[in-house]
Design brief:
Helix content: over 70%
Radius of gyration: 20 Å
CATH class: Mainly Alpha
Order of helices and strands: HHHHHHHH
Shape: elongated
Number of strands: 0
Oligomer: single chain
CATH superfamily: MetI-like
Structural class: mainly alpha
């Protein structure tokens, strides 16, 4: 059980960290080049409309079965919430704050790192939260292509008609999703509270 839980966390973690590394800079980029914002968000949206089983099926002939294919699919599923929330968060930063930064002689990079990103961090974290919870569920299905994780217990239990084995995989996966959602919710709340305090000063 412990090993399968660790595999589940590893698959989810690698995909989410990769999505953050690509999604946040991409979200920032499309705030600067509005002409590409629509196409990039549209392409990202397409990935989430594809059923996970179908997505795995499309990639298996090219990448084979196992963790690599699972991580790529999980990464693509996580991309939209992170890109979209980064874009939305930065776009919603008050123009007065940016103008104040310019008035203080800040460069565009300084305004991004010292004004826009700190102010938009709660929104970005909300995107990471959504992406992580989605990925925990999708990782369960990834066991079907030999990627491991808690889904392995579920699919084995289905094949052997053993309900206790199904529950042994399903319950921890559900609890993990709830726990992560609550954890990110608390972080998001604290960031939002700090942002409100900062604005009131």
């Amino acid at each position: 059980m412990g090993g399968l839980l660790l595999q589940h966390l590893q698959l989810t973690g690698i995909a989410i960290l990769s999505a953050i590394a690509i999604g946040v800079p991409l979200g920032i980029l499309i705030t600067r080049y509005k002409s590409i914002a629509g196409p990039i968000l549209a392409v990202s949206s397409v990935f989430q409309t594809i059923p996970s089983i179908a997505f795995f099926g499309v990639l298996i002939p090219f990448l084979g079965i196992g963790k690599k294919t699972a991580i790529i699919v999980l990464f693509l599923y996580a991309l939209l919430p992170i890109v979209k929330n980064t874009y939305t968060g930065i776009k919603e930063v008050s123009p007065f704050l940016k103008d104040a930064g310019k008035g203080m002689g800040m460069t565009n990079m300084q305004i991004l790192t010292m004004v826009e990103l700190p102010q938009s961090l709660p929104v970005i974290m909300a995107g990471v939260r959504i992406a992580t919870v989605i990925n925990i569920g999708t990782t369960t299905i990834a066991a079907y292509i030999g990627a491991g994780g808690l889904g392995q217990l579920i699919f084995t239990g289905i094949q052997l008609y053993r309900n206790e084995m199904i529950l042994a995989g399903a319950i921890p996966a559900a609890l993990l999703a709830i726990l992560i959602d609550r954890l990110f919710g608390c972080i998001e709340y604290k960031m939002t509270s700090k942002g409100l305090k900062g604005e009131s000063i």
